[in-house]
Amino acid sequence: MDRWDRKWVMLACDAGRAMSLASIPVAYALLIFAVNGIGSILGSLLAPHLEHRLTVGQSILLCRWYFVLIWPLYALTPFPPVLGAIEFGTGLVDPIEDVPYFSRRLKLIPDELRGRVLSACRLFPGTMRPLGWH
Predict the structure, then answer these.
(1) pTM: predicted TM-score of the whole model, two decimal places
(2) How many domains does the chain have?
(3) Which residues of the chain, if any, have pLDDT below 70?
(4) How far, in Å, CA of 37 to CA of 33, rounded?
(5) Range(s) of the domain holding residue 48
């Protein structure tokens, strides 16, 4: 399981925990996760157009600030439509960061070095995770 799979598992657990604390019925919870998927599809369709307008750094900062500002809302709202909007926004924003970042990385790293460079890039965050940094 790589970093991105763990991120989605963590997001699902956090959102599931928020929904269970808010006593949201299972049908609403499934709709909220479906809205996240719709947001991801729309975000992946939108990302190539934004890639020409934003630099990689700007897209990463934009998405990270979105997450910083939106996470407290998970704790503050028990309403399914608001949680659906949060999940939709999360799904929409995530590809806006990922597409330019991965495209840039694929352009810069030669094929014969890609495995070594990616393993080195994952080594530092992987070893720092037990210390609380991720």
Answers:
(1) 0.69
(2) 1
(3) 1-23, 129, 132-134
(4) 7
(5) 3-109
